[in-house]
Design goal:
This protein is of the alpha+beta class. The chain contains 10 helices and 5 strands; from the N terminus they run αααααααααββββαβ. The protein has a 5-stranded antiparallel beta sheet, sandwiched between helices. Strand 2 and strand 3 form a beta hairpin.
Amino acid sequence: MRLAASLVSLVLLAPAVGLAQSAGEVERCFQNPGACAGGGGGGAAAAPPAQAPAPVAARPAPAPDYTTVLNSPDADRRKIQESLRTLDKYNGPIDGNLQSEATVKAIGDWQKGRNTPVVGKLTPQEAAQLNAEAARAPIRRLESPPPQTAAPVPLQPAPPSNADALKALQARLAERRKAAEPKANAAAQALVRDLKAYVAADGKGVAGEQFAAFAKWYADNKTAGRSVGEITPVIDDYGDAKAGAATSTEVKFETKQGDKTYGQCLVFAWIEASPRKNPQAFTCDDVAAVEKWKTDQALKSAWR
């Protein structure tokens, strides 16, 4: 029983002892704080000072997103160009090409005016701001230029019709022929006189000497028993040639054989001179030979 009572007394006495020791320790620390902080005197050791947390590295800012706008639908890219045009930053084509030189410069100018980095490309936020700014811009009235009065243009005469042109040509030819007619007629009449003299002399005279083809023609008709009657000249052409004035005359002969009358025709061509130069006689149906003679003489017609 005594042992049990002693144990109970010890248990009850322990808190009192601990409390008294704690109270004494507090008193000691109050009187000598340095001793308490150093853990001397049998007191409990002081806790170490707390350490500051290590600094955390800041995360880098994300790179601007330009790809979204560059790859946006065509209508959205065209809208951006239209907004730039509304703000007088762009005057190129509305083709949706945001990477063209003109569009990049226009975006850069807009960014410069906002004091933002000039990169010539837009983030989605910048694109929205650009379109909103253009939507708020006042609508500009396009003033019509004052009407300009064109200087009166003098009326040009209508070009002549083909009929009028033909009439004018015929009039010029008639004037030219009228001027050449006296000389041409004189040359033709001189030829007719020589032809008649040759017939009257029965194949002798200058006409046969100058026009060998006529001399043969006359001889052939005489052999056939035909005589030569009326001789009528019709001027074919007249004008200047390289060797002088040239004449070509169609001469119609009336030949008779018994009671029959035949009409025959020769073309005489020559250069006026005394004696005649380059004289030739052709049958009337040999047109090509007559024209060749004119070409060879470089005849500039005043008759046709």
